Structure formats: structure tokens, C-alpha cells
Amino acid sequence: MNAVVSKDGTKIAYEKKGSGKPVILVDGALTYRSFGPMPGLAGLLAPYFTVYTYDRRGRGESSNTKPYAVEREVEDIEALIQEAGGGAFVYGISSGACLALEAAIKLDDKIKKLALYEPPYITEKAAQQDWKEYTKQIVELLKANRRGDAVVRFMQFVRTPTEQIEGMRQSPMWSIFEAVAPTLVYDAAVMGEDRMAPVKRVANIKIPAMVMDGGANLMDRSFMHQSATALAKAMPHAQQRTLEGQTHDVNLEVLAPVLVEFFSKH
Fold first, then answer.
1. Strand, helix or coil at 59?
2. pLDDT tens digits, one per residue of 132-156
3. CATH number, domain at 83?
4. Omega before 67 within 30 of 0, i.e. cis
5. What CA–CA distances, in Å, run from 5 to 11, 89, 174, 258?
6. 206 and 108 assigned to the same domain
7. pTM (predicted TM-score)
8. Domain boundary residue among 188, 218, 240?
9. Structural domains counted in the chain
């Protein structure tokens, strides 16, 4: 394990593997460097790039300076980019894609290319009330130190089947979820108070970008497809890719070649 120190003094733990141009992988909710999809993805990308996986602040072996602000998480990515030589490709998934997008807005040409998979913005204002109720409930549960209940509420919000939630509660992984539960508030902040796709702000992103979504069950998850379309249209040098047959839990064997192709193009 290596570590960089972010601008506010927070220690950010990271690992790197492979060789070539640097790629930084940004996790979504409840996952981190050693728990979730990123270690597997790093292994698939390492033959082509130097791949950085890291623990977002408040997770794993990273520290957690308060008060939280999205800008501090952007500074964490900036510290990693500096460690990687001053420039890097960045890939983010889910709320991590929203964070990667915020980093691209603020860090100018330090991010050389940007790839996103299903940033879960909404496009309909009618869904905003549900979002505001969810974020309020998460904050209240965590203030009461009801971490397990906060994880359940998150899983319910993202439509995880009840029997699957119950199964996870009985498994060893539940303690891992509870440990990082306070960062659910951070993920909510990254997605914004209204959770709308920031189409006006991304218009200033001049780097090559790719916004991906999964093609499976498209009718049930059309808001992610719509958000991907809106973001790709708003960025001057962006493309949209729909990965056929894929859900939000994307198959890494399908995803990795798409990233290799995109990051390798001149």
C-alpha cells in the first residue's frame, strides 16, 4: 500500500500496477480499493497502462478529514494525478463517475481522457422529491449511528431485492458495508442536491470523454441512458457507448476492452 497526502492533509491510500500511461479508477458507493470491482478491472487494464486504484476518503486505509466537501474529493484525485506524473486518464463508475466528472470540470487538462459508466443522474424533475427524502433519511440514520439501517435504505433506494439484502446482512461482507456507510452521504453530495445531470457545467470539458451505459433492462433504467445521452451531447468531445446486455453491475470482461480501446486512441 502507498499513500499520498491530499491538500487538506487527508491520507489517500492507493496501489498501482502495470506499466504505461496512468489510469486512475474511481469507485462508486460502498466499495474501495480492495472491496468491489476495481481490483479485477485493474488486473485487466494493467497489461496496457499503469493503473491506480485508491480508497476514497473515509474508506479502507484512507483517512477522513471533516467537514466533507466534494471539492476535497477532487483534491484527492488531483493528488493522485500529481503522484502519477501530472496527468492521467480517469475512469469512474456510478457515483464515482459523478466524482470523476466533477474532477474533469475543475482540473482542466490534468485529466487527459475521461470515461464514465452510468453516472446515476436523473433527467426528470419529478424524481427529485424521492432523492431529497432519501438523502434526509440517510443523514438522520447516520447521525443516530444506525449504519446498518443506512446501508439497507441505500440498497432499497437502488432497488436491490429484499431477499438479496437479507442475504447480505447475514454474510461477512455486511461489516464492511457498515464500516463505510458514513460515506453514503459523500456519494449523495457528489451527485448534487437535485441529482440532475450537470449539462451546463460539463460544456467546458474539452478533453476526449466517453459516457457508457448498459443496454440490459433499458426500460427499467432509462434514466441512466438518458443521462448518458445528455452528458455526451453537452461535452464537445464526448461519445456515448451503450454496452449491450450489461446492467449497472457491468461485466469487467466486457468493460475492459472498451476502456483499452478508448484510452489507447491518439
1. coil
2. 999 999 999 999 999 999 999 999 9
3. 3.40.50.1820
4. yes
5. 5, 20, 29, 32
6. yes
7. 0.96
8. 188
9. 2
